[in-house]
Specification:
By secondary structure, the chain is α/β, with parallel strands linked by helices. It has 3 domains: about 280 residues, Ribonuclease Z/Hydroxyacylglutathione hydrolase-like (Metallo-beta-lactamase, Chain A); about 150 residues, Metallo-hydrolase/oxidoreductase (Rossmann fold), CATH 3.40.50.10710; about 90 residues, Ubiquitin-like (UB roll). It has an 8-stranded mixed β-sheet. A 7-stranded mixed β-sheet has the order 9-10-11-12-13-19-20. Strands 15-16-14-17-18 form a 5-stranded parallel β-sheet, with helices on both faces. Helix 10 packs across helix 11.
Length: about 550
């Protein structure tokens, strides 16, 4: 080889580009709390900032992703990009945004919902909201970013197309392929095919319904199904659905009009979403809902009530209707209740309670299992395969689902000929490039629990104490120690919390404590005496109540 050819070979060699980094902190291996970060050469962009719904912790209903791992290594996104307005994608903004204070980029309807949430926490003037136009490229945090319209169960859902250096990536957000969504734009299928034709490195894809074969049902089919069912009913009809499903709300308005009924919306969230959709011109042609207080002027067969509570939420409009405690409406024997929703895993017991309450009061229930009155907002297998055919990505990364959902999405991709797949976990820092994705390190990830107006770690002491109290109860001892002239102890009161204790058992514990305390202990340090009292009470409760309660002691010492 001569010198000239050697020089030429050296000249055409190029340093490979730095990897595109992917860091999920919520929504990988779980449903809810979606938060993903993308980084390139020390610049970071976040997509979505959602909350999740907690179960099994008394007094705690929601959680947000734990971002302390970012703070430890000083990673701070320069932009927050929002795909759509569901709570599991925007609900953590009031809790986490103040730690970043970066601009938030989204569309008008979603911005409306973010503002509604924000005003419950702080002054709206603090929030930096920037409106974007779909199918337009923006330069944000070193990335070229484009919002690509997709159909979902809320208006203005988008996939996010990222380009940086030689890397291309599409983050789907929540999506489905619905040719007739009733409300909102169609999926920009032509644009997706163009992205695929230009070459797509990585697809980060919604996995929620990957275990389901076929295609998801269209919202237009649901409207038809609701009309067919309701047109045959001769009593009051109550329909419960997700308040954010504006297409379903609009469809029910059309069904009410077509079947000679007036529509009423029950539930604060339902009212709030109606106002947001109306302000953004998504409900043109829908008949105006009448106030619940005016239902008394209408015969039952002319009433169609749409309400919150499709997941059995305590305090929701449906929960109060089922219990007979709603201040504006009481259901009657023979009324129909339609569940235009699916049961989200974990809500089965809450819904069973609602079902039983309604049935005992003489209502007739209908669900999606019997009639085509609900459609999911997420893609089934054939929709995923269609998207893969359009995009032809080199790599698929399944997110937005528990592991079984991710695993099935991976299988669908592998069967479709996708070269690389990688199932991430929250906290995995994944390097994306021309080859297989690789995990380069792991950051702290977890959940901060929302307790009242504060955030706490999952292992917060007061939460574990509350959990223990809810299961084992508590005992509070109030004692007086008389040191002179004759040392003795007097048990003033014993308070039991959450324990089934008879008067005789309380008297027995009273005597047990009085007789078991040695006079010599009365001169001990208060902490020693307290320990002995706790031990005596604990052992007694374990023996006679089969409980291990939290025990607190209050001692008044008199000389």
């Amino acid at each position: 080889m001569n010198q000239a050819s050697s020089i030429a070979q050296v000249q055409i060699r190029r340093t490979p580009p730095a990897p595109l980094l992917f860091l999920p902190l919520g929504g990988a291996g779980e449903i809810g709390g979606n938060l993903a970060l993308y980084g390139y050469q020390d610049q970071w962009l976040a997509i979505d900032c959602g909350l999740g719904f907690a179960r099994g912790i008394p007094g705690v209903d929601q959680w947000v992703p734990d971002i302390s791992g970012l703070e430890e290594v000083k990673i701070r996104p320069q932009a927050l990009v929002i795909t759509h307005g569901h709570e599991d994608h925007i609900g953590a903004i009031p809790w986490l945004w103040s730690k970043w204070r970066c601009p938030i980029y989204t569309t008008p309807f979603t911005a409306h919902l973010i503002r509604d949430r924000w005003t419950q926490f702080a002054d709206l003037s603090e929030l930096d909201l920037q409106l974007i136009k779909p199918l337009t490229q923006y330069q944000l945090a070193g990335f070229q970013v484009e919002w690509v319209p997709v159909t979902h169960s809320i208006p203005e859902a988008h996939s996010i197309y990222l380009k940086v250096a030689e890397h291309t990536l599409l983050h789907t957000g929540d999506w489905k392929l619905d040719a007739a969504p009733v409300v909102g734009a169609l999926t920009a299928s032509q644009r997706l095919q163009e992205i695929g034709a230009a070459g797509l490195d990585t697809l980060v894809c919604d996995s929620t319904n990957a275990p389901n074969a076929g295609w998801s049902r269209s919202e237009a089919e649901v409207q038809t199904g609701l009309k067919q069912v309701i047109s045959q009913l001769d009593r009051r009809v109550v329909v419960t659905c997700f308040a954010s499903n504006i297409a379903r709300m609009y469809s029910l308005g059309q069904v009410a009009q077509a079947t000679g009924r007036k529509i009423t919306l029950l539930g604060r969230t339902m009212q709030r979403l109606y106002q947001a959709a109306k302000a953004n011109q998504y409900l043109e042609g829908m008949p105006a809902p009448i106030p619940a207080r005016d239902l008394g002027y209408l015969p039952a067969h002319e009433q169609l009530i749409v309400c919150t509570g499709s997941q059995g939420e305590p305090g929701s409009a449906l929960a109060r209707l089922a219990a007979g405690t709603h201040p504006e409406l009481e259901l009657e024997v023979g009324d129909y209740v339609l569940f235009s929703s699916k049961v989200i895993p974990g809500n089965e017991l809450a819904l069973e309670k609602i079902y039983n309450q309604l049935l005992k009061r003489g209502m007739i229930l209908m669900t999606e299992r019997q009639h085509p009155i609900h459609a999911s907002g997420h893609p089934a297998q054939e929709e995923i395969m269609q998207l893969l055919q359009w995009l032809q990505p080199s790599t698929l990364i399944p997110v937005h689902g528990e592991y079984r959902h991710q695993h099935k999405n991976q299988e669908v991709a592998q069967a479709s000929g996708i070269t690389y797949t990688y199932i991430p976990h929250n906290g995995d820092l994944v390097a994306l490039g021309r080859g297989a994705p690789r995990k380069v390190r792991e950051y702290k990830a977890g959940r901060w629990l929302i307790d009242g107006k504060q955030l706490f770690a999952q292992d917060a002491l007061h939460l574990s104490e509350r959990q223990n109290l809810s299961q084992q109860g508590g005992v509070y001892l109030h004692l007086v120690i008389q040191h002179t002239p004759n040392p003795h102890v007097q048990v003033l009161a014993i308070d039991f919390w959450g324990l089934a204790v008879t008067a005789q058992l309380e008297q027995d514990l009273h005597q047990h404590l009085t007789q078991s305390l040695l006079v010599s202990l009365l001169e001990s340090a208060p902490s020693v005496l307290e320990w002995h009292l706790q031990r005596l009470t604990f052992n007694w409760c374990k023996r006679f109540l089969a409980k291990t309660p939290r025990i607190k002691v209050h001692i008044l010492s008199l000389n």
